[in-house]
Write a structure and sequence with these properties.
Shape: globular
Oligomer: single chain
Number of strands: 14
Distance between the termini: 35 Å
Helix content: 10-25%
Order of helices and strands: HHEHHEHEEEEEEEEEEEE
Structural class: alpha+beta
Length: 237
């Protein structure tokens, strides 16, 4: 089995344990806090952010209909464990690898419908490598050029299921999102989150670098659905 195959299996293995990790989400909580519902939020996203279940929030707040929680509602979050880091200003990378607009709309609508996800760019920079094949080998994400030490942001809210060295990927962070989605951030100089952390979209999770098999500083970014890599540009604005 080649290096790409082994690396794919390691990423898939990390994703495969996510269900077990999520089942442990209730350990080590504090006494709770208050959350004010903002536009675009629902109980599922709020529960994911704080590492609790929708049922926990419903019971703690005596909610009759979980689908109808007005903006501005103050919710008690039982035993929340969230960490929020203010993001720096982000931006889109170059357009050289853009897929057709109709495919992009379908993928973004699918992520929104299936799991209420809206991915954002993890960092500012130009694209150096597209999704697909490179040198007759699968390239399972996109490469975003940037100076070493640039802040890398979470593309969506979720739980960190891997934060360590991964062979040719160097220092890697893998985030499990709602539904069957996950994102991968590779070649970092430094990772700033730990396995088990719950993070919000835009949180700074790493500093870019050139660890592993990299010829220069950049971020290798993947989006996976049901453990299979898909073109991240299908999901990014």
């Amino acid at each position: 089995m080649g290096c790409v195959g082994r690396r794919t299996l390691r990423v898939a293995a990390a994703l495969a344990v996510s269900a077990a990790l999520l089942s442990c989400a209730h350990g080590g909580r504090n006494k709770g806090s208050e959350h004010v519902v903002e536009p675009g939020e629902n109980l599922y996203r709020i529960a994911l952010r704080y590492g609790v279940t929708v049922e926990d929030i419903v019971k703690a707040n005596h909610i009759d209909d979980p689908t109808k929680v007005p903006v501005g509602t103050k919710l008690v979050i039982p035993g929340e464990s969230a960490r929020v880091v203010p993001p720096e200003s982000g931006g889109a990378a170059g357009k050289a690898c853009d897929p057709p607009d109709d495919l992009r709309r379908v993928s973004q609508r699918k992520a929104k419908t299936e799991a209420d996800l809206a991915f954002e760019w993890p960092a500012r920079g130009g694209l150096s490598t597209c999704f697909g094949e490179r040198h007759s080998r699968p390239h399972e994400g996109i490469d975003i050029m940037m100076p070493e030490g640039t802040s890398v942001h979470a593309a969506e809210a979720g739980k960190v299921i891997y934060s360590d060295w991964m062979g040719a990927y160097g220092k890697v962070v893998i985030v499990k999102h709602a539904g069957h989605y996950a994102s991968v951030y590779a070649h970092n100089r430094k990772v700033l989150v730990e396995k088990g952390n719950f993070i919000e979209r835009g949180d700074v999770i790493a500093e870019s670098g050139s660890t592993g098999n990299a010829t220069g500083p950049h971020l290798h970014f993947e989006i996976r659905r049901a453990e299979k890599p898909e073109d991240p540009l299908l999901y990014l604005p």
